[in-house]
Design a protein that fits this description.
CATH architecture of the largest domain: Orthogonal Bundle
Number of domains: 2
CATH topology of the largest domain: Farnesyl Diphosphate Synthase
Largest sheet: none
Strand content: under 5%
Pfam family, one: SQS_PSY
Protein name: Phytoene/squalene synthase family protein
GO molecular function: transferase activity, transferring alkyl or aryl (other than methyl) groups
Helix content: 55-70%
Oligomer: single chain
Structural class: mainly alpha
Distance between the termini: 38 Å
Length: 283
């Protein structure tokens, strides 16, 4: 067992980490009840830790080792003082308190192995599977926290929400990914537009890319609509777990005005609390 004072420090660390590196989710988590907020932040801090591994390595093997450390930590097989890692300590405490599926977090880590290499995402279906493992799971696990560990009946809503949220983030991060030789835009869509992954890596064929991105924005909007419709069948307590979706439509509008290769489409920070408030009233 982790001492209570140490666990409090771990949760505070997660709060700071998400605030500094995943501001949209941090703002959304801030609208949750005080008793549940820290656990949502632990889940989102873990997601950030997994996502940032690519940024901290120069070759794949150290990333593989780091991902395996996280797998072992979640499955209870890690060597050393796992509790000494604040995000791991807070996440494992959250998993235990709310009977969360460890397999969901392990699958997220397995999906993140794709990030370590420079392979292109083959198809849109492959990307939707990746989004399900890396983003949909976050909506679903936070929803279960809000239901005090009970089944939130929100798998369908989370599935669509994850694709909408992840694909929006992918389009925003495209200039950054291209500089790192990473290609998340599905190769089948690029091929249909007369492009290939190397065109993205070298910033070529911006006009064709703009068409691909326009189609993807429509695809995102469809998944967003399906996610919100599916919430009708979910436990009502789950709805605040889907507050991060507040930013999807505003980002789509910003992306429609942005150049394909950058700069990154942003929203003014002062607008974000208002966007959340308005979305929350309709959720």
């Amino acid at each position: 067992m982790v001492p209570a004072a140490r666990l409090e420090d771990a949760y505070r660390y997660c709060d700071d980490l998400v605030r500094d590196h995943d501001r949209d989710r941090w703002l959304a988590d801030g609208l949750l009840s005080e008793q549940k907020r820290r656990h949502a932040l632990a889940i989102h801090a873990f997601s950030y830790e997994a996502a940032r591994i690519r940024e901290t390595i120069h070759e794949a093997m150290p990333g593989e080792i780091r991902l395996q450390w996280w797998v072992d930590a979640i499955e209870g097989e890690a060597r050393g003082d796992v509790a000494g890692h604040p995000v791991a300590a807070a996440l494992i405490d959250t998993i235990r308190r709310f009977s969360l599926r460890r397999s969901g977090f392990v699958n997220l880590l397995e999906a993140r192995r794709f990030d370590l290499y420079d392979d292109a995402m083959p198809t849109l279906n492959d990307f939707e599977g990746y989004a399900g493992e890396t983003a949909s799971v976050l909506f679903l696990e936070v929803a279960q926290v809000l239901c005090n560990g009970a089944d939130p009946q929100a798998a369908d809503a989370a599935g669509h929400a994850g694709v909408a949220y992840a694909l929006t983030g992918l389009m925003r991060a495209l200039p950054i990914h291209a500089r790192r030789n990473q290609v998340y835009l599905p190769a089948d869509l690029l091929k249909a537009a007369g492009m290939d992954p190397d065109d993205l890596r070298h910033g070529r064929k911006a006009e064709q890319l703009a068409g691909v991105l326009a189609d993807l924005r429509e695809h995102v909007a469809g998944h967003l609509d399906k996610a919100l419709a599916a919430l009708a069948a979910a436990d009502p307590r789950t709805r605040p777990a889907f507050l991060p979706l507040a930013f999807v439509r505003p980002y789509l509008k910003a992306l429609a005005k942005a150049q394909p290769y950058g700069p990154v489409a942003e929203l003014a920070n002062w607008r974000k609390p208002l966007i959340l408030w308005r979305f929350g009233r309709r959720l």
